[in-house]
Amino acid sequence: MSASDTGSLHSKVAAVTLGFWVMKIAATTLGETAGDLLSMTLNLGYVASSAILVSIFAGLLAVQLSARHFHPLLFWSVVLATSTAGTTMSDLIDRTLGLGYATGASLLAGCLALVLLAWRLSEKSISVSHIASRRAEGFYWTAVLFSNTLGTALGDLLADDSGLGFTGGALLIGSLIALTALASRIKGVNRVVLFWIAFVLTRPFGATFGDLLTKPLEKGGLGFGTVGSSLVLFAILATLVAMPMLQRRAQPASS
After folding, report:
1. Rounded distance between C-alpha atoms, residue 173 and residue 231, angstroms
2. Listed residue (15, 30, 22) closest to 240, CA to CA
3. pTM of the prediction?
4. CA atoms of 203 and 213, how far apart (whole Å)
5. Is 221 in contact with 193 (CB distance < 8 Å)?
6. Is the predicted pLDDT of residue 132 greater than 90, yes or no?
7. What percent of the chain clears pLDDT 90, i.e. is strictly above it?
Protein backbone atom coordinates (compact mmCIF):
# COMPACT_ATOMS: atom_id res chain seq x y z
CA MET A 1 0.00 0.00 0.00
CA SER A 2 1.33 3.41 -0.95
CA ALA A 3 1.88 6.30 1.41
CA SER A 4 -1.07 8.13 -0.10
CA ASP A 5 -3.36 5.18 0.59
CA THR A 6 -2.14 5.00 4.16
CA GLY A 7 -2.71 8.69 4.70
CA SER A 8 -6.22 8.67 3.27
CA LEU A 9 -7.23 5.75 5.46
CA HIS A 10 -5.64 7.32 8.51
CA SER A 11 -7.65 10.52 8.00
CA LYS A 12 -10.98 8.69 7.71
CA VAL A 13 -11.30 8.10 11.47
CA ALA A 14 -12.66 10.91 13.64
CA ALA A 15 -10.21 12.48 16.06
CA VAL A 16 -10.81 11.39 19.65
CA THR A 17 -11.72 14.63 21.42
CA LEU A 18 -14.37 15.67 23.95
CA GLY A 19 -16.66 16.39 21.00
CA PHE A 20 -16.14 12.83 19.77
CA TRP A 21 -17.48 11.39 23.03
CA VAL A 22 -20.42 13.79 23.16
CA MET A 23 -21.45 12.77 19.64
CA LYS A 24 -20.82 9.10 20.45
CA ILE A 25 -23.23 9.25 23.41
CA ALA A 26 -25.81 11.14 21.34
CA ALA A 27 -25.51 8.57 18.52
CA THR A 28 -25.78 5.59 20.85
CA THR A 29 -28.76 7.04 22.68
CA LEU A 30 -30.45 7.72 19.35
CA GLY A 31 -29.58 4.18 18.29
CA GLU A 32 -31.41 2.83 21.34
CA THR A 33 -34.57 4.86 20.75
CA ALA A 34 -34.59 4.34 16.95
CA GLY A 35 -34.04 0.60 17.33
CA ASP A 36 -36.94 0.38 19.79
CA LEU A 37 -39.01 2.51 17.41
CA LEU A 38 -38.70 -0.12 14.67
CA SER A 39 -38.90 -3.27 16.75
CA MET A 40 -41.54 -2.27 19.30
CA THR A 41 -43.38 0.94 18.37
CA LEU A 42 -43.77 -0.07 14.69
CA ASN A 43 -44.07 -3.71 15.80
CA LEU A 44 -41.64 -5.08 13.19
CA GLY A 45 -40.10 -7.46 15.70
CA TYR A 46 -36.45 -8.05 16.49
CA VAL A 47 -35.71 -10.37 13.56
CA ALA A 48 -37.11 -8.08 10.85
CA SER A 49 -35.71 -4.95 12.49
CA SER A 50 -32.27 -6.51 12.81
CA ALA A 51 -32.31 -7.59 9.15
CA ILE A 52 -33.28 -4.08 8.01
CA LEU A 53 -30.78 -2.26 10.22
CA VAL A 54 -27.87 -4.63 9.56
CA SER A 55 -28.52 -4.17 5.81
CA ILE A 56 -28.41 -0.39 6.24
CA PHE A 57 -25.19 -0.72 8.26
CA ALA A 58 -23.62 -2.95 5.58
CA GLY A 59 -24.51 -0.45 2.85
CA LEU A 60 -23.13 2.54 4.76
CA LEU A 61 -20.01 0.58 5.73
CA ALA A 62 -19.34 -0.27 2.08
CA VAL A 63 -19.45 3.45 1.24
CA GLN A 64 -17.23 4.27 4.24
CA LEU A 65 -14.62 1.67 3.26
CA SER A 66 -14.55 2.85 -0.34
CA ALA A 67 -14.14 6.52 0.59
CA ARG A 68 -10.60 7.90 0.45
CA HIS A 69 -11.01 10.74 2.96
CA PHE A 70 -12.74 11.41 6.25
CA HIS A 71 -16.35 12.54 5.84
CA PRO A 72 -17.95 13.45 9.20
CA LEU A 73 -21.51 12.87 8.01
CA LEU A 74 -20.64 9.44 6.61
CA PHE A 75 -18.54 8.45 9.63
CA TRP A 76 -21.26 9.30 12.15
CA SER A 77 -23.92 7.72 9.97
CA VAL A 78 -22.03 4.42 10.22
CA VAL A 79 -21.62 4.84 13.99
CA LEU A 80 -25.36 5.50 14.27
CA ALA A 81 -26.10 2.47 12.09
CA THR A 82 -23.98 0.21 14.33
CA SER A 83 -25.74 1.60 17.38
CA THR A 84 -29.24 1.11 15.95
CA ALA A 85 -28.46 -2.35 14.60
CA GLY A 86 -26.78 -3.22 17.89
CA THR A 87 -29.98 -2.42 19.78
CA THR A 88 -32.13 -4.88 17.83
CA MET A 89 -29.36 -7.49 17.60
CA SER A 90 -28.95 -7.44 21.37
CA ASP A 91 -32.70 -7.73 21.89
CA LEU A 92 -32.78 -10.60 19.39
CA ILE A 93 -30.10 -12.47 21.35
CA ASP A 94 -31.43 -11.65 24.81
CA ARG A 95 -35.19 -11.89 24.25
CA THR A 96 -36.10 -13.70 21.02
CA LEU A 97 -33.44 -16.39 21.46
CA GLY A 98 -34.09 -16.40 25.19
CA LEU A 99 -30.45 -16.26 26.32
CA GLY A 100 -31.07 -13.48 28.82
CA TYR A 101 -29.14 -10.29 29.41
CA ALA A 102 -26.26 -11.78 31.41
CA THR A 103 -25.59 -14.63 28.97
CA GLY A 104 -26.04 -12.37 25.96
CA ALA A 105 -23.66 -9.77 27.39
CA SER A 106 -21.07 -12.45 28.17
CA LEU A 107 -21.32 -13.86 24.65
CA LEU A 108 -20.97 -10.42 23.07
CA ALA A 109 -18.03 -9.53 25.35
CA GLY A 110 -16.27 -12.68 24.21
CA CYS A 111 -16.91 -11.81 20.55
CA LEU A 112 -15.55 -8.29 21.06
CA ALA A 113 -12.45 -9.65 22.78
CA LEU A 114 -11.85 -12.05 19.89
CA VAL A 115 -12.18 -9.21 17.34
CA LEU A 116 -9.69 -7.04 19.24
CA LEU A 117 -7.31 -9.98 19.62
CA ALA A 118 -7.50 -10.80 15.90
CA TRP A 119 -6.96 -7.11 15.12
CA ARG A 120 -3.93 -6.99 17.39
CA LEU A 121 -2.39 -10.15 15.93
CA SER A 122 -3.06 -9.05 12.37
CA GLU A 123 -2.10 -5.37 12.55
CA LYS A 124 0.20 -5.37 15.64
CA SER A 125 -1.90 -2.56 17.09
CA ILE A 126 -5.52 -1.75 17.97
CA SER A 127 -4.95 1.99 18.08
CA VAL A 128 -7.68 3.97 16.32
CA SER A 129 -5.27 6.80 15.53
CA HIS A 130 -2.95 4.68 13.39
CA ILE A 131 -5.26 2.80 11.01
CA ALA A 132 -3.12 2.23 7.93
CA SER A 133 -5.04 -0.42 5.98
CA ARG A 134 -8.57 -1.28 4.96
CA ARG A 135 -8.23 -4.51 6.90
CA ALA A 136 -7.58 -2.49 10.07
CA GLU A 137 -10.55 -0.30 9.26
CA GLY A 138 -12.67 -3.45 8.85
CA PHE A 139 -11.57 -4.60 12.32
CA TYR A 140 -12.37 -1.14 13.67
CA TRP A 141 -15.97 -1.18 12.47
CA THR A 142 -16.48 -4.79 13.52
CA ALA A 143 -15.30 -3.85 17.01
CA VAL A 144 -17.62 -0.83 16.99
CA LEU A 145 -20.61 -3.02 16.04
CA PHE A 146 -19.89 -5.59 18.76
CA SER A 147 -19.18 -2.93 21.39
CA ASN A 148 -22.47 -1.15 20.67
CA THR A 149 -24.39 -4.44 20.73
CA LEU A 150 -22.67 -5.38 23.99
CA GLY A 151 -23.49 -1.97 25.42
CA THR A 152 -27.18 -2.49 24.76
CA ALA A 153 -27.13 -5.83 26.58
CA LEU A 154 -25.23 -4.31 29.52
CA GLY A 155 -27.62 -1.37 29.69
CA ASP A 156 -30.65 -3.67 29.72
CA LEU A 157 -28.98 -5.90 32.31
CA LEU A 158 -28.41 -2.94 34.62
CA ALA A 159 -31.86 -1.43 34.05
CA ASP A 160 -33.96 -4.62 34.27
CA ASP A 161 -32.04 -7.27 36.23
CA SER A 162 -29.81 -5.34 38.62
CA GLY A 163 -32.57 -3.50 40.48
CA LEU A 164 -30.91 -0.15 39.77
CA GLY A 165 -33.54 1.00 37.28
CA PHE A 166 -32.92 3.34 34.35
CA THR A 167 -31.68 6.25 36.46
CA GLY A 168 -29.48 4.10 38.69
CA GLY A 169 -27.99 2.29 35.69
CA ALA A 170 -27.19 5.57 33.95
CA LEU A 171 -25.56 6.95 37.11
CA LEU A 172 -23.44 3.82 37.59
CA ILE A 173 -22.21 3.79 33.98
CA GLY A 174 -21.68 7.54 34.08
CA SER A 175 -19.49 7.11 37.16
CA LEU A 176 -17.44 4.41 35.42
CA ILE A 177 -16.99 6.70 32.40
CA ALA A 178 -15.81 9.49 34.72
CA LEU A 179 -13.29 7.12 36.35
CA THR A 180 -12.04 6.12 32.90
CA ALA A 181 -11.60 9.80 32.02
CA LEU A 182 -9.64 10.37 35.23
CA ALA A 183 -7.47 7.32 34.49
CA SER A 184 -6.51 8.87 31.15
CA ARG A 185 -4.69 11.60 33.09
CA ILE A 186 -2.46 9.07 34.86
CA LYS A 187 0.93 8.75 33.26
CA GLY A 188 1.74 5.31 31.91
CA VAL A 189 -1.86 4.11 31.54
CA ASN A 190 -2.47 2.55 28.12
CA ARG A 191 -4.60 5.04 26.15
CA VAL A 192 -5.73 2.41 23.62
CA VAL A 193 -7.17 0.22 26.38
CA LEU A 194 -8.91 3.23 27.92
CA PHE A 195 -10.39 4.17 24.55
CA TRP A 196 -12.05 0.79 24.08
CA ILE A 197 -13.24 0.72 27.68
CA ALA A 198 -14.82 4.14 27.20
CA PHE A 199 -16.22 3.12 23.81
CA VAL A 200 -17.98 0.13 25.36
CA LEU A 201 -19.18 2.07 28.42
CA THR A 202 -20.72 4.93 26.45
CA ARG A 203 -23.04 2.45 24.75
CA PRO A 204 -24.79 1.20 27.92
CA PHE A 205 -24.88 4.82 29.10
CA GLY A 206 -26.70 5.71 25.90
CA ALA A 207 -28.89 2.61 26.24
CA THR A 208 -29.97 3.38 29.79
CA PHE A 209 -30.38 7.09 29.00
CA GLY A 210 -32.49 6.14 25.97
CA ASP A 211 -34.67 3.90 28.14
CA LEU A 212 -34.95 6.71 30.68
CA LEU A 213 -36.28 9.01 27.94
CA THR A 214 -38.69 6.56 26.29
CA LYS A 215 -40.14 4.36 29.04
CA PRO A 216 -43.38 5.39 30.79
CA LEU A 217 -43.36 7.08 34.17
CA GLU A 218 -44.70 4.02 35.97
CA LYS A 219 -41.66 2.05 34.76
CA GLY A 220 -39.15 4.63 35.94
CA GLY A 221 -38.80 6.51 32.65
CA LEU A 222 -39.65 10.06 31.56
CA GLY A 223 -42.38 8.98 29.15
CA PHE A 224 -41.23 10.84 26.01
CA GLY A 225 -41.78 7.78 23.81
CA THR A 226 -39.57 6.43 21.03
CA VAL A 227 -40.78 8.84 18.33
CA GLY A 228 -40.35 12.07 20.30
CA SER A 229 -37.05 11.00 21.84
CA SER A 230 -35.66 9.88 18.47
CA LEU A 231 -36.55 13.19 16.82
CA VAL A 232 -34.96 15.26 19.59
CA LEU A 233 -31.80 13.13 19.66
CA PHE A 234 -31.52 13.20 15.86
CA ALA A 235 -31.70 17.01 15.90
CA ILE A 236 -28.97 17.15 18.58
CA LEU A 237 -26.67 14.75 16.72
CA ALA A 238 -27.24 16.48 13.36
CA THR A 239 -26.38 19.83 14.93
CA LEU A 240 -23.21 18.46 16.54
CA VAL A 241 -22.06 16.94 13.24
CA ALA A 242 -22.95 20.01 11.15
CA MET A 243 -21.37 22.67 13.36
CA PRO A 244 -17.68 21.78 12.73
CA MET A 245 -18.39 21.32 9.01
CA LEU A 246 -19.99 24.77 8.78
CA GLN A 247 -17.13 26.32 10.76
CA ARG A 248 -14.53 24.86 8.41
CA ARG A 249 -16.43 26.15 5.35
CA ALA A 250 -16.64 29.63 6.87
CA GLN A 251 -12.92 29.90 7.62
CA PRO A 252 -11.68 30.61 4.05
CA ALA A 253 -14.30 33.30 3.57
CA SER A 254 -13.21 35.11 6.75
CA SER A 255 -9.48 34.91 6.00
Report:
1. 24
2. 22
3. 0.78
4. 15
5. no
6. no
7. 8
